[in-house]
Amino acid sequence: MSRSRALSAAVLPLVLLAGACGSESGKDASSTSSSTASSSALDAVTVGTGAKGVPTVTLKTKPFTVKETTHKVLTQGKGAPVKATDVVSADYLMLNAKDGKQLDTSYGKAPATMDLGGGRLLPGLTKSLVGEKVGSRVLVAMTPADAFGAQGNQQIGAGATDTILALLDIKSATAPLTTATGKAVAPKPGLPTVKVTPGKPAVFTIPKTPAPKQLIVEPLIQGEGATVKAGQTLKAAYTGVVYADGRMFDSSASEKGGYREFPIGVQQVIPGWDKALVGQKIGSRVLIVVPPVEGYGTKGNPQAKIKGTDTLVFVVDILGAS
């Protein structure tokens, strides 16, 4: 939870994010892109191999434009087809087709995690990835409407009328977690207990003993995914209550999908969350008891009716991190 409330942060690199004021095209992101015949327009784009095996993309003519978003499979993978709700891991190279200038790349770094069902990915990428097989290399040309919309993205050098090119190597595609999954851990006696129902606020039973004065981090389910690292964006379902009276003050159950996303380990959430969640594994469910010094401090959080003396209790399902 942020110092005011849980943040809604990007799970993706900036160049892969649909603008907040983007076009309506994102609503149709589950549809297929243009026909195979239309993909012949991409014959004007050459993909090669540069230093250390990193791919290169070259335009035969500039500027390059398309009237509808189209994609071309350069290498057919052997994995399962990507579903519209999958979380995809992919390497990417993105260029402005006006001048061939590279906007960003993941090659030589870590692949990007793209939540196709999350509504934040550029619509043209979602349209082009759905239905293609894991292991494929896909070349995509996106209209401005299916990229950054009418406002463009001046921060990265994409104008409102610029076609955007992307080369993607699909590494994996998995169904998104909707709840914690892994090995159950027996809770220690004397701590709050909790009942979690996916899609609903968790229900806590608070002991009648005084609130702990130290931060307590107690795994209830040990996930089997990757370890959460500082600087990542966490996707989590959670509920928070006040220890003194069990009053709920926040829950991600009110959000579409039942989760929220926020940066972790970079002082964008309360200290107790940074300390408790970095180092946990994706899929885990964690009980966190947060004393005031690890929460909102002596000022509390008047917006949430949290006093400066209130100890807080959270249960957090870690659904993803990127």
Count of all domains: 2
How many DSSP H or I helices? 2
Count of β-strands: 17
Order of H and E elements: EEEEEEHEEEEEEEEEHEE
Question: Class of the largest domain, according to the CATH hierarchy?
Answer: Alpha Beta
Shape: elongated
Please give the structural blueprint:
Blueprint: E1 45-49, E2 55-59, E3 70-75, E4 87-96, E5 101-105, E6 112-115, H1 123-129, E7 137-142, E8 164-174, E9 182-184, E10 193-195, E11 203-205, E12 216-223, E13 233-242, E14 248-251, E15 260-263, H2 271-277, E16 285-290, E17 312-321
Antiparallel strand pairs: 1-2, 3-7, 4-5, 4-6, 4-8, 7-8, 9-12, 10-11, 12-16, 13-14, 13-15, 13-17, 16-17
Task: Walk me through what this model shows.
This protein is mainly beta and about 325 residues long. It has two domains: about 15-175, Chitinase A, domain 3, CATH 3.10.50; about 180-320, Chitinase A, domain 3 (Roll). It has two helices and 17 strands. Strands 9, 12, 13, 14, 15, 16 and 17 form a seven-stranded antiparallel beta sheet that branches. Strands 3, 4, 5, 6, 7 and 8 form a six-stranded antiparallel beta sheet that branches. It has a two-stranded antiparallel sheet with strand order 1-2. Residues about 5-10 and about 20-35 have low confidence and may be disordered.
